[in-house]
């Protein structure tokens, strides 16, 4: 799967920022604050995102509420994973990416992996 299109990204951002399931009307209103989008267009985008597995819907009266099935962080990780899968040399691509990290990001990554950084008196494993 490739990254979201422009309108898909705007809809997902609206849902992530809402931090709760939202109706089509709520998404349209939120998007309209930035640039007007037709109600039917938003329904189409939400249904495409649902078919792709990025949003779920639940019935509420005569309408639906839509919620994201992944956080923004999970989506970013998914994109990074896709890029690595497509790389001819996954390890080289990963090492090149890691080399571009700022010190604080590298420390966070090492902490997540349970590796002590050199500045902590430990060795990098």
UniProtKB/TrEMBL annotation:
Keywords: DNA-binding, Transcription, Transcription regulation. Transmembrane segments: none annotated. The keyword Transcription regulation applies. It holds the Pfam family Penicillinase_R. GO terms for molecular function: DNA binding. GO terms for biological process: negative regulation of DNA-templated transcription. Belongs to the BlaI transcriptional regulatory family. This is Putative transcriptional regulator. It comes from Nocardioides aurantiacus.
């Amino acid at each position: 799967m490739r990254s979201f299109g422009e309108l898909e990204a705007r809809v997902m951002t609206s849902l992530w920022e809402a931090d709760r399931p939202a109706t089509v009307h709520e998404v349209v209103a939120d998007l309209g604050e930035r640039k007007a989008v037709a109600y039917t267009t938003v329904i189409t985008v939400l249904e495409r995102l649902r078919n792709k597995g990025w949003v779920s819907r639940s019935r509420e009266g005569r309408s639906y509420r839509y919620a994201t099935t992944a956080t923004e962080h999970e989506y970013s990780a998914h994109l990074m994973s896709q890029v690595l899968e497509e790389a001819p040399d996954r390890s080289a691509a990963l090492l090149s990416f890691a080399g571009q990290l700022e010190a604080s990001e590298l420390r966070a990554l090492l902490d997540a992996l349970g590796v002590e950084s050199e500045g902590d008196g430990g060795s990098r494993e």
